[in-house]
Amino acid sequence: MAALALLAGFISLPLISLVVWTVDEGSWRAMASPVALEALYLSIKTTAVTMGIVLVVGTPAAYLLARAEFPGKRLVNTLIDIPAVLPPSAAGIALLLAFGKMGLLGEQLSLFGIQLTYTTAAVVIAELFVASHFYVRQAAVRFGRVDRDVEDAAMVDGADRVTVFRRITLPLAAPALVAGAVTAWARALGEFGGTIIFAGNFVGTTQTMPLAIFAALERDFDAAVALAVLVLGFSFVVILTARVLTRRAEELEG
Questions:
Q1: How far is the first Cα of the chain from the last one, in angstroms, to the nearest whole number?
Q2: What pLDDT does 65 receive?
Q3: DSSP letter at 169?
């Protein structure tokens, strides 16, 4: 109990300090500034696109990792895990060398008039690179634990594989999928190093909330704190909503 109280206090103290610092009127005005709202909107937009891609691509990929055996599976598993431990700055440099003008695919993309660096698309790519692991890994673990006897029974009753996946496998794995999605979203929302190197820090185009906080820190500490509180509040609402949805999914599963 003491260890839990110590951990909770350690986490709570910095968060409370953020909120307490913003009691003055100037901080509240900073939260409502055009730059802050634009950065928040961009963060919401890019992370929504990121999560859409993660769910559409990551769900079948996680299912395949959990259920199938194929040559090079260990290598694929290792590759998926690498972004989770790679320093964000190294991730940004790697993306720049892959998709930048002088990167491995840069010249080929330029032939089609596509430039990814320093664009909103680059923000999404950076978020995908660092966040997808958290969803895929958790989803794969859960898919591997789904009782296959239940799936086999449904197939014996005449259901095809797609129906079994949609009606049985996904609902049984739903709590873990929601939890993995929230974790991935939180990582995407907080992405900084890869974004600033690969996408830059341009207001309205690539300046997400973490970059806006960093930019404000150089000129106005109160504004930086206000922006931090703004993203803290938004994160709290999303995580709380996800927990409610997870609990409902678990109740339906039970």
A1: 29
A2: 92
A3: I
What tokens does 123 get?
A: 């923000």
**Cβ(192)–Cβ(4) below 8 Å:** no
Maximum CA extent, the chain: 67
Q: For residue 200, which phi and psi values (nearest 5 degrees)? A: 85, -175
What are the angstrom distances between the C-alpha of 136 and each of 41, 131, 166, 176, 243? 26, 9, 18, 11, 19
* pLDDT of 136 over the 70 cut: yes
CB distance 98 to 105 below 8 Å: yes
* Cα 246 versus chain centre, distance: 17
Q: Give start and end residues of each alpha helix (H) in 68-147.
A: 73-85, 88-99, 106-111, 120-145
CA–CA separation, 50 vs 186, rounded Å?
11
138 contacts 60 by C-beta, under 8 angstroms: no
> What's the chain's Rg over C-alpha atoms?
21
| Average pLDDT of the chain to the nearest whole number | 85
Angle between helices 88-99 and 120-145 (to 10 degrees): 110
CA 75 to centroid of chain Cα atoms: 23
Residue ranges with strand state E in the chain: none
pLDDT at res. 20: 78
Count of CA atoms in the C-beta half-sphere (13 A) of 140: 20
How far is Cα 137 from Cα 177, in angstroms, rounded to an integer?
Answer: 10
Under a CB-based contact definition with an 8 Å cutoff, are residues 198 and 96 in contact?
A: yes
